[in-house]
Specification:
This protein has about 220 residues and is an alpha/beta fold. The protein has a single domain, classed as TIM Barrel. The protein is about 40% helix and about 15% strand. It is built from eight helices and eight strands. An eight-stranded parallel β-sheet has the order 7-6-5-4-3-2-1-8.
Length: about 220
């Protein structure tokens, strides 16, 4: 069982590593769902951590419908992450009809060649997730971060189970959204093998080392 921790700063990334996270999703400003970190943060995290780190590539808060300029901007962010040696990126783009923006995704996938790619929780806003699964497989996406089309992963557990079965071995379904040590047992039944959590305690804005350890311990126990 693999634990990915969403880290919103250099310190959160360090804490995640100390807690035993297998991988980090690095972003900035979780209050808006995360955006791309600054180049300074990207450089520092790359220097200070040895575990795999995927970078969220999202130019702004708000919806996932992007202009041509924004698509080009995010392509440059992907190329920067590649040049810095990051293992993967996390992307997502939709049309105004809540379907995959295949044009934008093709641009980004070409830029990310040689890296692992996760499609983020824009997936939960799709009108037809079954069609999207096929399209994302064809694009070469490695995994999908999703709450099972619900507000949080526990609420979407039934759909997550269906997604894991439909995705098969070619595409990893990674539950995320409110994942905590106290509810992970409810999510293990989905059949997923990777889980995503910020591991930030109430009232804090930094990843909690003890929460990472507790979550990782539970996943290790079940594997």
């Amino acid at each position: 069982m693999l634990l990915e921790v969403c880290a919103n700063s250099v310190q959160s990334a360090i804490n995640a590593g100390q807690g035993g996270a297998d991988r980090i999703e690095l972003c900035h400003d979780l209050t808006v769902g995360g955006v791309t970190p600054s180049e300074a943060v990207l450089r520092e995290v790359r220097e200070r951590l040895s575990i795999p780190v995927f970078v969220l590539v999202r130019s702004r808060a708000g919806d996932f419908v992007y202009t041509e300029h924004e698509v080009a901007e995010m392509k440059e962010s992907i190329l920067l992450c590649k040049n810095l040696g990051y293992e993967g990126v996390v992307i997502g783009a939709l049309t105004r009809e809540n379907q995959l923006d295949l044009d934008a995704l093709h641009v980004w996938m070409e830029a990310a060649e040689g890296m692992k790619v996760t499609f983020h929780r824009a997936f939960d806003e799709l009108t037809d997730y079954k069609e999207a699964l096929v399209q994302l497989k064809d694009l070469g996406i490695d995994r999908i971060l999703t709450s099972g089309l619900a507000g949080d992963a526990v609420s979407g557990a039934h759909t997550l189970s269906a997604l894991v079965k439909e995705a098969g071995e070619d595409l990893v379904i990674m539950p995320g959204g409110g994942v905590r040590p106290q509810n992970i047992d409810q999510l293990l039944s989905t059949g997923a093998g990777e889980f995503h959590s910020s591991c930030i305690a109430a009232g804090s804005d930094v990843t909690d080392v003890s929460m990472v350890k507790a979550l990782k311990a539970r996943l290790t126990q079940d594997s």
